Amino acid sequence: MHLDTQNLASLFITSNFLLRKKEHARKSLTNSMETYAIKRLQRSVKSSLIKPCIHITEAEAKSQSTMKFLGETLVQVSLLALLYVAGGSTAAWQPTLDCQTKCGNLTIEYPFGTSPGCYHDESFLITCNQTGTEQKPFLRKGNIEVINISLNGELRILMNSSRACYNKTGTLIDYQDHHIQLTHFALSIKNKITAVGCDSYVYLNNMGVRDSSTGCLSVCNSTPPNDGLCSGDGCCQTPIPIGTSYFAVKPYSFNNHTDVFQFNPCSYAFLVEDGSFNFSASKDLVNLRNTTRFPVVVDWSIGDRKCDQIDNNNSSCRENSICVNSTSGSGYTCECKKGFEGNPYLGCQDIDECSKDKHTCAKQEICHNNIGSFHCKKRQELSIIVLGSIIVFLIFLLGVCGLKLKLESQKHTKLREKHFERNGGIMLRQLLSADSSNEIKIFIEEEIKIATNGYHESRMLGKGGQGIVYKGILSDNSEVAIKKSLPRIGDPSNAAHQQIGTQVAEFINEVIILSRITDTKVVKLIGCCLETEVPFLVYEFVSGGTLSDNLHGSKSGFFLQWKDRLRIATEIATTLASLHSAQVPIIHRDVKPTNILLDEELSVKVADFGASRLVPANKEQLTTLVLGTFGYLDPEYMHTRTFSEKSDVYSFKVVLMELVSGEKALCFNRPQNEKNLVIRLNSALKENRLDEVIDKTMVNGVNHMEIQKAALLAVRCTAVKGEERPKMKEVAAELEGLGAPATKRFVRSVSGF
After folding, report:
1. Which one from 590, 634, 648, 695 is the annotated catalytic residue?
2. pTM of the model
């Protein structure tokens, strides 16, 4: 038994005839006649179909598959007849005006759409699903996420990877493989089949223009030294055949990863757009960086016929566009003609090359825009006299500019020399020449500019009351911290010449003293630049950030344990005690967490001596302007303007309170009477609720007593009167007695910063 092809042919001839008459019917029928026309066409189609249908039913009633096919055919032809009046040719179809054009970050343009009336056919349906607070687009009604649609016949999707994982005995414990069927679409040859593993090979079955299989293998006995290469050493890639519409990716292993289990327990296989996967041996061989989906390019096209098989009336290419055969299989795409832009499936618009500067006209020509092109028209030639005058004027102007630049250069040179002398540069050179062991360097202004990339904002590390700090890279590629300091040198217009000379001498003397400090817990001063209005100081660069960053700020995901906090406090106290007991004592005057730097092992580096002062041997106290940071300032110093080493003791103990409590010295979110941490801790101690202030995240049964003792020490050292506070060396000794580790260092985790 076979289907009567003659009768079926008559069905499709009738439907095609109706489609060809569509345009004529739309022009001649009015709205009142449309219903009548539809009914007449339905009766006409029914009369042409009923006889062959009865014949087949009586002859082949026992064939259920034939009846099903005929029923579907009848529905299709009826729909074609309805399109006769309603404008049903898919080639001439246009989307409605209220179509959705965005789904999440994806821009959706016809022939794609999200709802009936907005896409060309079901192959171009984009399903927009709501996932939590965001929308995600999927191809058709499946689970293939779309990340980009291009009108040049490409779309990008996310595809799952396949894997086979084994335990150390070679037993398969996790296996996943994936396949996909792209009806009417095909995979682009821009994709590559990829395998990752040191005991792996991948096998790809594909169907499309021609069925075939391909694959690659990757073998190694240790982690490959080179990243980025997929050449068979830990990773391999191979192209896919053109026109692939169905494929399945399966990973395999030669020896079940028993020889490479320690660094590579799994074989991975996936399809990925060429250039979108950068192999990293140290990361991908372990777990593929937990990546489960990769971008894949899909070629799409309209229909299953080539351009020479359709006429203009049946083409989906609109005004000012051309038909282009698909290179990956059947069908075609559309593109705008040269000189036009836009969506070729809706109609392309003229490009105004002249206004968009896309023309090739010479300078002496004027651009005129045409529809789809442009033309150039020569300008009227300028007279020789006018042209000569312009040339003479330009030469004169060039000479004036050159002279001005030369004068400005001389002026700038004199200004640099003036700044250098005013900032004590001559005095510093004399001191350095008398001390050959001092390695401090005097930088010129140009070196500082180059090192900071012209004082670019991206190089700024911080800004405070003592100046701005930049990260600098010197000519030998060494990293340094460059501080635009604010020394108390005075203003010549507001101070006597003798007083200015004294302040300059003090500043230069401080630079010399700081450069001689050999304590490894103090940030080393490398040099300075005195050619600018305010001096620049160049220090060693410490990469671990400040104590404030690690305790309160930007180092998120990292937590300081009590043993590290206690060791940091001990190192700060020991360093300050060393400075206080030097031959010429140094008082820091601005001890706070942002001035305590930490290296990668959380070792302390005391920084920012911009507010520091040297104490003569015959004095224990000095009177000066109040400098420092509110919340850390010694109250006695604020009232009397007299500071001593006990001022540093007070500031340090505020830092110790922050280490104990995990809170900032000042917090305006706390109650009015507890905004200041010193007052908050003192009140808690008096009311026997010290545990409320201590940072509970670091407390355990072993360290609870140590933390309480440290808190009591902090309270004792913040006494209002300086004479009631212990000396810094006594504080350091007491902290060491609490059991801070002296040898074992914390090694910072790379992933934590």
Report:
1. 590
2. 0.44
